[in-house]
Write a structure and sequence with these properties.
The structure holds 3 protein chains of 3 kinds.
Chain A lengths: L3 H32 L6 H19 L3 H28 L3 H23 L14 E3 L4 E3 H23 L1 H11 L1 H6 L4 H23 L9 H16 L4 H22 L1 H18 L10
Chain B lengths: L4 H16 L3 H26 L8 H18 L3 H25 L4 H21 L9 E2 L14 H24 L1 H11 L1 H6 L4 H27 L1 E2 L1 H5 L1 H14 L6 H20 L5 H16 L7 H10 L2 H6 L1
Chain C lengths: L5 E10 L2 E11 L4 E5 L6 H8 L7 E6 L2 E2 L5 H7 L1 E3 L12 H9 L6 H15 L14 H14 L4 E5 L7 H16 L3 E5 L3 H7 L2 E6 L2 E6 L1 H5 L2 H8 L3 H9 L1
Parallel strand pairs in C: 3-8, 3-9, 6-7, 7-8
Antiparallel strand pairs in C: 1-2, 1-4, 4-5, 9-10
Helix pairs in contact in C: 3-4, 3-5, 4-5
The chains are: A mainly alpha, B mainly alpha, C alpha/beta.
Chain lengths: ~290, ~325, ~250
Amino acid sequence: MLSPVILIPVLLNGLMTGAVYALIALGLTLIYGVLHIINFAHGAMLTAAMFACYFAFKTLGIDPYLSLFVLAPVFFALGYVLQRFVIGPASHGEDRNMLLVTLGLAVVIENALLVNFRGDTRTIDVPYAFATINLGFTFLAVPRLVGFVAVFVVAIALWLIMSLTDTGRAIRAVAKEKLGAQLQGIDVPHIYAVTFGLGTACVAIAACLLMPSYYVNPGAGNAFVLVAFTIVVLGGMGSVPGALIGGLTIGVVESLCSLFLGDSLGQVGIFLIFIAVLLVRPQGLFGAKA
Amino acid sequence: MKSFVPVALVIVALAVLPLFVQSNVVLNFLVVTLMLALAGQGWNILGGYGGQYSFGHAIFFGTGAYVTAILQVKYGVNAWLAFGCGMVAGAVVGTVVGWLAFRAGLRGSYFALVTLAFAEVLRIVASVAPITGAGVGTLVNLDMRFSAMQFQSRAVFYWLILSLVAAALIITWLIERSRFGAWLIAVRENEDAARALGVNALTVKLGAMVISGVVTAAAGCFYVQYFLFVDSHIAYGTWISVEALLTPIIGGAGTIFGPLVGALVVRALGEGALLITGHAPGLDLVVFGMVLIAVVWFSPSGIIGLRKTLLGKFRRPAAEVRRG
Amino acid sequence: MAEPLLDLRGVSRRFGGLLAVGGVSMNVREGSITALIGPNGAGKTTLFSLISGFLRPSEGEIYYDGRDVTGEPSHKLARRGIGRTFQIVQPFAGLTVRENIRVGAYLRHPRRDDAMAAAEKVAREVGLEPVLDAPADTLTVAGRKRLELAKALATEPKLLLLDEVLAGLNPSEIRDIIPVIRGLQRRGITVLMIEHVMQAVMSLAEQVFVLAEGRLIAEGTPEAVAADRAVIEAYLGHGAAVRLATVSS
């Protein structure tokens, strides 16, 4: 039996990584809930945001936690424009086409980054990268703690947007009954684009939370997004609480698997859960049966 | 396509090509193009005709490649036999993944996701398992003999891949003309309506998945014989999953020649992009991605359907309204 | 009297807590045209989906041609001879009319040429011959309804379930299609039809079943059912029969 001295830090670590997963999954599930497509460009967006965060620090000296406040709106706008002027018109309203277009975007973004920045892995050195807080029985890494707290702040902010603003109400209306919303005069393409923008802003924030303790290369986002797919499927496509609970669960499962099986096989554990959930309960553990 | 004549003409025209082209660079270009067309033809049978969009066709390509390589290197199996086993392995993977996914009723996004996930699992497992050579990969010994399925002349490799592509074209042509093909297309267009007409959607999709698996696995088997090397990124990486769907979508999904046309266009564009910019890695893929989006946007039925799409723009504006 | 072709024994279907079809027992005589009527949301289409194997009954059994077929999947039932059309027409939109019908014809004719010939014969019968090579999505509403019928007919069914084939047609189109349905009966096909167009029910059906809120509330000849008090109330609301009787007396 493992001693709690080893197990507790592993669990805490898992929860904190899981929070960032949850944020990425939140963006994915939001887009799915409204547009009913899986955004295969989500990972590439995350990588792009990580690069943006990296260069903001390297060339302008802006701290990742500060650039968050710039990058979130910038990526919101980027997501809005992409959905409104590329994905939407290119897909002709067919789901299969949307899959292909988002996949195409992922290929373009990822490889454009590769062309420009090569495959090099880059990191940034912030003074607090290795700062810890002593809890007596274990140490907590400061960047991870900040990430953990920030994710919940973002989730609450999203919830407030959804329930208090007119746009939020319109998003929920479109998610529920697209045709009815359209008949009530809601501009559906606009709402689609806003949703896509919000989802993309989520990965921008996640990128800024990750950068102090993580690295970036042109494929960096993919690992996270495959995990985010798992979370979204686990939590139920389109379910926001599902994404949060699913994210934390997967974070813990991953760090436990890594402890017992080593890093790369830990990832296999996640995918096997993913495939099992898809095959047995595709509506997710928290989703209602369609 | 009703007549076999165009299929035969294309095969013959491609077969005599090496008599006029001696350049190894050109032959190499054509060999790789045909290999991608073969992988794409596999995708086309399931995705183009059956409407089941797989984002993880690497599971077939990679399994074919690894089985061919490992049987030769680790078990001393004859290359031709190993090649055949690689294709059978593709069928096995198709049966297992197809049965799991279709029985669970996965369609659309979900099917794309589960195939992607299977490819990722296999990639990670292949990158650590000792039998695949883990991170190092598996190298097939150089042995330029017919019995080892290795040839001094590029032209022979060309004819080998061409005969595989020809077989795939004929299989596709036969599918188009058969009851199985009609039912497969019916499932793509409207699964419920097909079921009401007595179509067992599960077995039809499964059948397509198995054929698809064999064809794409053959491309993987060929890869190993041609390049004599495979590792987890080549075998199960996203590049081949993307190329396998790119070629038919760009050429024209659900048409016999779609993957072939698509592969030619994609490769020509890719090579062109690399030439112009001095081989910046990734640039060809940037171009592919943009072409993919452009094709979906402006000619959803691919290059082969382009003529129809253009005519349609003038003749039937009503069609646009219906799509919206 | 001969054994019924279709025999439902206490068939129910629940969706979560909602009872869509509750304890329906009914039978359809071989060679007849039978109508299933009832207000919107009565569970008629659900009942069709149960009979044609698209849904499994929560309770009860379905006998077809003397054997228990409860829970068999739709493609098997189609093979046994149960054909159905959909209320919302389901053409294979990217295919031509000929190809659409051929999908059904392949069920009994595995060879391409035979299937082609069978499909053309069906097209002639339902009046789609002039548009055989038109894409299915260019047809008019009436054309689509005919195509829906043709596809099902091409499977050469013994029992044909028609789900509102007349809905959305104008009176002259309805006049055109009624002889086609009668022709089915002459060919020995048993027809069970959901229909809202009462004029057609009156002129075609010999037996009518009335479903309301998932339960069978009346059955009999069209005349008897039309005069049934429970039926009138189901359609027009509680007390309607009394009010109507007062008005007409």
